[in-house]
Amino acid sequence: MSYAVIKTGGKQYRVQQGDVLRVELLNAEEGATVNFDQVLLVGAGESITVGAPTVTGATVSATVRKHGRADKVRIIKFRRRKHHKKQQGHRQHFTEVEITGINA
């Protein structure tokens, strides 16, 4: 089974065909096909191809399943005995994609 390491949204992901993962928000409609061209590594069985910094000609194709927002993260800043308390919440946007193919 072949796998690849791709880079998107400032993060790196190890993916195989059929994987479902959440990445940073992509500008694509639901059901659309997205190609990731920043492939850092491709492995198939015992053979591994490492890019410098990317593997030339390699792409990973994926289908956008849905867009959404993650669970809320609570940020609390509190200083004791200073009459200071600050609260904030944050929900990160994401795109859920399903890997459909690895072209090395």
TrEMBL record:
Keywords: Ribonucleoprotein, Ribosomal protein, RNA-binding, rRNA-binding
GO cellular component, one term: ribosome
Keyword Kinase carried by entry: no
PANTHER family: 50S RIBOSOMAL PROTEIN L21, LARGE RIBOSOMAL SUBUNIT PROTEIN BL21M
NCBIfam families: L21
Function text: This protein binds to 23S rRNA in the presence of protein L20.
Classification via HAMAP family: Ribosomal_bL21 (MF_01363)
Subunit and partners: Part of the 50S ribosomal subunit. Contacts protein L20.
Family note: Belongs to the bacterial ribosomal protein bL21 family.
Descriptive protein name: Large ribosomal subunit protein bL21
Organism of derivation: Dyella lutea
